[in-house]
UniProtKB/TrEMBL annotation:
<dbReference type="InterPro" id="IPR001611">
    <property type="entry name" value="Leu-rich_rpt"/>
</dbReference>
<feature type="compositionally biased region" description="Basic and acidic residues">
    <location>
        <begin position="51"/>
        <end position="60"/>
    </location>
</feature>
<dbReference type="InterPro" id="IPR032675">
    <property type="entry name" value="LRR_dom_sf"/>
</dbReference>
<feature type="region of interest" description="Disordered">
    <location>
        <begin position="29"/>
        <end position="63"/>
    </location>
</feature>
<keyword id="KW-0677">Repeat</keyword>
<keyword id="KW-0963">Cytoplasm</keyword>
<dbReference type="GO" id="GO:0005737">
    <property type="term" value="C:cytoplasm"/>
</dbReference>
<keyword id="KW-0433">Leucine-rich repeat</keyword>
<protein>
    <recommendedName>
        <fullName>Leucine-rich repeat-containing protein 51</fullName>
    </recommendedName>
</protein>
<dbReference type="Pfam" id="PF14580">
    <property type="entry name" value="LRR_9"/>
</dbReference>
Amino acid sequence: MDYSFKEMIEISEILEEEPRIGKIDILQQKKTNKNNTKTKNDENEVDSENEDKNEKDEKSNQVGWSKKTFTKAPLIIPMVPLSSSYKYHHKDGMTVTEEKEKKTAKYINRAIRLSNNNFLSLEGLDMVCEKIIADPFKNLSWIDLSFNSLEEIHECILKFDNLKTLFLHANKISKVTEIDKLAKLPNLRSLTLHGNPLEEDKNYRFYVILMLPQLINLNFSGISKQERIGSKGCIVNNPHKYDKKKKNY
C-alpha cells in the first residue's frame, strides 16, 4: 500500500486517503456487500408496506367505500441537509434520516509505504493500521517511514511483531538511544537510519549493531562479523553513554 507524497502531518490522516495499491480483503468485502444487501432488502420491505397502505387509502376514497374520520396531528417533514452522508427511507408515512457510517475497506498487505510526508510522530499508527489492514500485526513485515520529520521512535511500532524491514532514513532522530526500543522486534532484519542527526556520531553504527543483534542489514549494507566484534570493543561498559548530559561544575 502506497501512501507516499500525500503531504500528511498526522497519522490519522491516512484514513482520509486512498492507497495507490492494495488488495482488498475479500472476506471483509463480502461482509460489507452482505450488509448492504440486507439494508436494501429492509428498505424494499418498507417500500412494499407503504405501497399497500397507499392502495388501501385509494380504495377508501372511492365511492361506495365506508369512510372513517380520524383526528391527526399535522404532518411535519424535518428539514435535512442534502448530503451523501445521509440516507432516507419512509416509516409510517414519515421521512426518516439516518447518518451513514463511513466504512473503510480493509486490505491484505505485507508492506506499507508512508515515505515523503511530514509526519511528526508515529503515535496512533497501530490503531490506523488495524482499520485499513487485515490483521496488521501479523501480516505487516515492511514499513517505509523515510523522508518524514520524526524525532523519536514511538513504542506503537513494537506491536508489529513480524516486522522485518523498517526504513527510517532522512528523518530528524538525534538521540541514538531511540534505537534501543527496536530491540523488542525479534524479526527485524533490515533497518535504515542514514540522513538522521544521529549519524554525526562516528560510533552510531557500532552502537546500533550492538543493541540490535538480530539485524542483518543496516543502511542497505550487510553487517559483517568484524563489525559485530568491533561493536563490542567500541561500546565497552555503558552502551547509553551517548545519552548522558554533561555536568557543569
